[in-house]
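Ticket #4471: structure output looks truncated?

Reporter: J.K.
Steps to reproduce: submitted the chain below (475 residues) through the standard prediction queue, then opened the result file.
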Amino acid sequence: MLYLLGVVIVAISFGLGPAITAAILGVSTFDFLFVPPHFTFRVSDARYLVTFAVMLIVAVITGTLTARLREQRERALIRERRIGALYRLSHDIALQSGADDVLATALRHIEDVLGVRALASVMADGGVVQFPAGDPSILEAEAENEAVRWALRSGRPAGLATAGASEGRVLHMPLVVGTNVRAVLSMRPREPFEPERLELVRAFSSLIGLALERCHLADRARHIQAEVEAERARNAVLSSVSHDLRTPLAAITGAATTLRDESHEIGAMGADTRRELAETIAEEAQRLNRLIGNLLDMTRLESGTLSVHKEWHSLEEVVGAALTRLGPEIKGRTVQVSLTEMPLIPMDDILFEQVVRNLVDNAIKHSGNDEPILIHGRMEDSELRLEVQDFGRGLSDEEEAGRVFDKFYRGRGASSAGAGLGLAICRGIVEAHGGTIEAANRAGGGAVFTVHLPVQGNPPTIDSEAVAGMRDSQP
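Returned output as attached by the reporter:
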């Protein structure tokens, strides 16, 4: 039994070959020491040969089974380590959104798990090889650079391709997904690769290749989405140009043509008619100028070239200037302005005047001719709160959630056409001032647009008589 225990211990510790050797040595030792004649390998009784054979067979079977259990345990540990390494790698690269970040994260795992120096290579435009991550010094030899280029072109491993190769050589493993080679991993081991490590390298390569393909598809999806948005904006601009800009041009052309055709006939057209045609030309020209201005302002907002020059201004003056410019549009409409004890406000008066003008113009379009428009302004905890209210049909749920401020969006039920840029420009200008704008439905029907503008600093001192005279001069 002690003899069998020794064979089992050797099989557990060293494997099948040493276990069989231990079994043979054990039988020989038993024969040499304990079977007469002692200290020789001869036997005095042939029955001992049967004993030796049984002992050897039992020892070999026991050692073989024990060695197999040992090998299975070692393979299970290898699989566990491999699964754990793959899980950690997949978890970390899943958190990365860019290809360079994926490669940098993957190389850190490869260097830690495999004990190698690693480098990632990609093929850029023009056939130039770039190294987004890793240690380029492992490609000091020109032959290694050629191997990288060959692996990028062919999609097949190069260099250290088999276990037991000499130390110091580099394995170039391409990251292939389908027929596309996304990158090449170059690894210089500190010791020769065993088959298990090569299998782990292949598993790592497949996982990293899938992550790079995911990044590539995500980039393509973002690019396609940007193209879709650009095409949508282009179609909206073309629609605006074909309808909103051609409508005032047609009115101007018609009125001017009428004046031209009747100009040679003295008295053929009355003074009132000529005045109406001239007013039509002026109004449509202003409308055309406003539409083109909105398009240009939207371009400036999106390009980031809009600059805000804040100075201390009177809100009454800014609102009055906006209503003056909207004279033809608000003719016959009731506009109630309530600005309670307003101090000077730091703002860009030209840009903020456009905000007020666009909000009032929007209220005009979405309410009836006999419905008033309310403009309320007050200070709340160092913040200007300016409201423009109408009594129209109100906002839908998606409009109230912010859809109404999207570019080229036209609200339902508008009484006149527009490019759908006015409210988008308002939001851009207000946000450039550091404020916010929101839309909501009024309790009694209609919509209310509220501008919140922070007021910081101390306004300059102005003579009260000058302020009173400035307020009295407003319409």
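Triage note (M.O.): checked the attachment and the full token line is present. Residues 161-168 have pLDDT under 50 and may be disordered.
Status: closed, working as intended.
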